Amino acid sequence: MLHALFFIVVVASVSGAPNGGAGRIAGGSQAISGQFPYVVSISRNDLHICGGFIYNDRWVVTAASCIIDVVMDDVLVKIGALSLITPEPEEQIISVLSNVTFDLYNRETKLHDIALIELSRPIVFSTTAAAIRYDEIDELAQPWDGMIVGWGAVNQGGTSATRLRYAPIDDLAADCRDYGIDEYVQNFMICAGSTTGTIAPCEYDEGSPLTQVANYGGVQETIVVGIMSKNLGCGNPSIPSIYTRLATYYSWLLQNAGQQPAFL
After folding, report:
1. Which of 15, 71, 85, 240 sits at 20 to 30 Å (Cα–Cα) from 111?
2. Model confidence pTM above 0.90
């Protein structure tokens, strides 16, 4: 199932809420123009199916599970969007020239769940469209300041929201014991969630970036450390989600998409 993002707030007075999504559902916080210029919406036949992030002016990174069986002629990438209904003044919609899926991607376990989309023309960088540097998690930058961003469903099994939202992910080394032994491979995946157990990505969120405010060299910088790959459903946000660990794929990204912009 393709995923989007919604954020679940569990009311403290509710106990034993079933995984079907009972309890109070909130949409996170609405983004404002230019707040997340690196996030893109990937659509098929004009319907949002996944998120992604800008790697450089010609390439977008997303999850392999988003595009593995999709006809690229049906796909568009929307850059600089807030609303999926009302276009922004600087919004760019670009068709796809080609795509590259990691050749060892496993459909069953979603190991190596990463892909590249080559755009038919360069992105025009601005305050609403920008690349973001990827790196390994900065384990010393604590407390962890992570974020997940996307166009999310209002309930499990629902359609995507129409406006970009975000929510904090403050545990970048969560416990994925609820997954099988072959479902979580630390060298290639990140297990991340909310320490309060109140936030989880959901349908139509595959490919969306997991970011962290890192402090490499004493300078704070927002980097992307993972892309949303899978979870056990969003009805129980206390169970963390699994993200593809981007730093592991440095050589593959460089070989297929080239360098990131020098100013990053």
Report:
1. 71
2. no
